[in-house]
């Protein structure tokens, strides 16, 4: 466990301070010796010898040299033992002493680092042990003087003159004067202390560690002789053996102190001394220090009487209220005091006997009565009864106890006679016994001290002298500790505090002393002018209840000092018992040495080691369980010293109190209590330091004024020896002192850490912080009370300004803005944001060493980073070079799939940018403060190819979110990653904020880690200071969110090589609008200009229009049949709205122009369209073997207005002539409907038609307001010599014309008929929703292909008369019925019947005719036909044709009836009616002739039938009939 050693405990809180004899070690410098070139005292020498002195904390009784006592004063009264007053307090001096023998007594020493404060000297008699009774000066001796010192037997042999008197040497006179000057500088002139003083001249060199003690290292080191000059003793120390020599010297000095105490006790017991003790509340010891130039020591009462008029005159200046006497008792002094006389001086308010005070707190009021326990091996355990604390007796009990105490005192007069012979009646008796108890306590006679304290306290209580009673009871408690320590058994056993009667009794005496102090009157009356508390207006912060400012001269500060010091001593008394685990030898040893036992857990160097911290807390809990003392109760005693009365003390004493409370809270691991004390401690330190610095400035200014006095009247000094002219307008500013600022700030930082305030660190490297902002960060739990944290930081800022510490001002301001901005009002935020720039400007102006400001903005200042996509005309598109070769072919391979993952283009998901072109990046910033945030620059953090950005300054408004544009440019092609934003504020703080792209995997990973953290945090409930963020993050090792940059994905950009840039300079359109008739074609000319420095060698046009978009939507729905989808695709591919003829290799140089020609077709329903021009530079010289290239695209939008002019409907396909079909041979026939046509070419075509021709008919209706000339013609055939037939009609507005055009019937092979309906685009194959039969599918395909042949034969165009506007009409929307397709389809087996008269053109009855049956094979295979001639009735009432149906007969080779059809009785046939023709090859024909005689006149109808002769099969045979032929016979 890493720990730090516990610091030395302060003497202010020492429970045994009253029993310690103070020895003050001071360095002495002789200016005369230094001017001669002798070696001066160094720190190393002083530290060495002061360490030797401090190593002797306790002296045994046998180590005190009683034979070295100075001769008795002539006025000293001899004691009972014949030794006089100076041997009174020797351990074996009086047989009446009840203490142990002299060899068993111990004298405890204390070595303070500084003399007491001057305002505490009124307590010189009341608390004598708070002042140095011995002063030892340490100086380096000169090497010129003869070495004198100890003899071998160790006796003091000072040099003497002829008359036997001490003979001073020249050197000792100089050192004596220097020593007196040193004491005069640190002690008041009227100070009665020290009682004994010595000046030790030490060697200029420290002995080596290897040298042995007592071995002489120089000549005469063992023959030293003390010299005495005027009562001042100067002693020379040996070079070696210093430890033993120091112990001997301390024994001599303590022996002299014992003698001085005896003299003092004798003076107090005198009648004058008793009068002064009873006259005022605070009598004190004083001394008239002789002048250093005229040292004169009144060694007798006569000398004191001679000096009395002067003191009386000085006393006349005191106020009349001060009680004084013309016969003040003189305390005889030894020569070791320097010749000064000590007197008892009255001080404070006059005293009188009062009512008895409340009885003391009994031991039973501290702890409950213990249960009977077994006898312990501890011999000094006492039995007692314990109960609840702070219970005072009632007034009746108080009076009763007062009467009992008075009776006890009357009986004990004879018992106290062995301690003093002075009368103990009245106030003086109790006070004298208290002072005697102090002297016995110092000399280590604790039993005698207890006796004096108990009797003195009761006497003081009986007369209402509560102040002296309080100090007597405090001494009684300390004497009890000393007595218990002398009776210790040395075992390690310890008992709990409540069950140990001795510590409970001691604590009850402490509590009684506190209760008496709380009731003590003010030491001085309000009219007192001389004030023992010089602070008139304490500027300390009030804590708790406010009290009025103390009145001047009342001595309230002295009472506060006594009360607070006693509270601290009580807390340390209980602390050391707690640290030892209970009452025992260990606790007593710790109390005597005032150190923590080794078993007490030491403090930790750092609070981050949680295992060590928990281990220490566990040990503290074990100690609390063993001692049955709580840590809060221990600290509660010290907190009692922090009442509002502390304001009466000087700030330095207040500082000492807060330091002790803070250390005590730290040892007990009460961090909140420590932080509260540390907070007040830092505030007091700031006040003390600032007041000291102001005083130093005033002193330096006064010194400079005094130095410059007498110089030139026109020049003034600046304190540096440099004259400055009065008329000089310039001024000089002294540099501010920063000494101690860092320590104060570190104290405040510790308080902030406990209160949960996260302070910024100014020494963080690097200064530019890197923060990774994820899409959703885990919320950091807050700790502490926000309002308290705000007030704490406000106080810290005020402290830093007062010091001044400008770096701390900046740190606290920024910490408040970062961590507590949500709890700061807008006005507070404005003050902070104005305050820290002022401090920063001062630092920069004065060139103060400052590391810079860290990043302090809270939360997410950068919300997002977005790359602005290039404009449409600048966006580069990636292509494969194989597209160029494919496009050059007439028909490239089409991918049947709409989505092919294998052809996914490279760089999908990346933003593509162009080299050497400006790019706009939009950064969204957030300002959470209530003031405008000024940002010096915002730049981008990139990786990959260089990216040059221009830093952008910005002012973010208060509480706003703003998006700014950052421009940049990449000079070369390659890959670019944008990782985040670099933000720099006006104060110099900067941060690199990384913004990873939240992909699916990263979001899932962050979500898992965040859930793990929140789950673990909610699993365990933490309380107290363990809930702080630092402990939450480090206690269980919870995984944090990813911080490594490699775990994230960044915004990636692909920088392509520099691209050309075209723009449309002009077009042939007006306002980009085209107005066309339906089917009209127009030409659009577009002029392009190259505005870049890169040529263009690739241009490709693509088009889009509203009709094609709607068609794609309909096709994408998948609800169309294959025939409908084919029609839509055919219209889009063969009749597009836009088309153009590529000019081949087209090159546009930089700055060049070119004209593109685009053809436009008007379609009804087309409202808009666009022309996309893709261009690029693909044949680069520096191009490496790359399979891709980039193009740019220009889009030219066009608005359409297409007028609906002509409608086509009622498409029909009919046989060419009804006359030919009926076969009229004789008699007049009616003209066909189309014979009236005036078109000669049509008339001729109609006459030339045969059974292989049909008529294509369609109606044209004009729905527009102008006439149109419509032409229906056949399409251009491969035979260029044949002139196509065209039928033209003029269709007026609102009129309808039917156009007729003869066309040839078409036949398709079986392969052509069975072909699937194709898909003209690369559309993915879609399975049909409904299943069709094979026959239905075959019929659908056959109808589709016959219709396609029909539509390819004809075309319709139109022209507007009187203008050049023309166009075409589409027939793709016309549907054909089954009968129309049958008429257009060529028969597979063609049968025709003709009537050929014999020798006559006009037929009459009884004439012979030949009926010829012609059969043609139009199939793809040979066939054998079977034909039959039939006569059919001419009317429905002709019964001559009817006959019963023959019975069924077996099938033969034909499906025709086996029995001949009954023929009419008026027709006689010559030949067989049916016959089998020979095998006909494809395209061949054959005929069969039957002769007939028409027996009567009238009309005869004949029909021929033909059937293919096939083997027996399930497939029905092919049967064809010829048209009916009518024959008219006259």
Keywords:
1530 residues; alpha+beta; seven-stranded mixed beta sheet; 30% helix; 21% strand; Ig_TRAPPC9_Trs120_3rd
Could you characterize the architecture of this molecule?
This protein has 1530 residues and is of the alpha+beta class. The chain folds into six domains: 310 residues, no CATH class; 130 residues, no CATH class; 176 residues, no CATH class; 145 residues, Sandwich (Immunoglobulin-like), CATH 2.60.40.10; 179 residues, no CATH class; 141 residues, Immunoglobulins (Immunoglobulin-like, Sandwich), CATH 2.60.40.10. It is built from 33 helices and 52 strands. The strands form 13 sheets. The protein has a seven-stranded mixed sheet with strand order 3-4-2-5-6-8-7, with helices on both faces. A hairpin with a 4-residue loop joins strand 26 and strand 27. Helix 5 crosses helix 10, helix 10 packs parallel to helix 12 and helix 12 packs antiparallel against helix 13. The longest helix has 38 residues. The radius of gyration is 64 Å and the shape is rod-shaped. About 16% of the residues have low confidence. Pfam families: Ig_TRAPPC9-Trs120_1st, Ig_TRAPPC9-Trs120_2nd, Ig_TRAPPC9-Trs120_3rd, Ig_TRAPPC9-Trs120_4th, TPR_TRAPPC9-Trs120, TRAPPC9-Trs120. Keywords: Golgi apparatus. InterPro entries: Ig_TRAPPC9_Trs120_1st (IPR058565), Ig_TRAPPC9_Trs120_3rd (IPR058567), Ig_TRAPPC9_Trs120_4th (IPR058568), TPR_TRAPPC9_Trs120 (IPR058564), Trs120_TRAPPC9 (IPR013935), Trs120_TRAPPC9_N (IPR058563). This is Transport protein particle subunit. It is found in: Golgi apparatus.
